[in-house]
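Narrative of activities, Objective 1.

The group set out to show that a structural description can be obtained from nothing but a protein's sequence at a throughput compatible with the screening campaign. Below is one input-output pair from the validation batch, recorded exactly as produced.
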Amino acid sequence: MSNDTASAMDYNAHEQTYEGFINFSKVGTIAVLNIVLCLILFAFGGTAATVFGWLMLIANIIATAVGLALGEKGWVAPAGVFVLSGLLAILTV
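Output recorded for this entry:
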């Protein structure tokens, strides 16, 4: 016998969870790509590249935390750090 006392699905909570997952995916992907750039700076650069690599790694951690807190437009801060890391990688490696 079936039980008809189950509550209806909470679509608002479902949509909020989905938006959070999408934001985490975007910010996380950009953060991982930035870590790869920092590893390139560490491996193939000289002293200046190593210093810039550490600075960009710290900036990546901060930008990722800010990006996760901002919500829908949270990918902008990590993307800015990624672009700056890419430019530094081009210039120093």
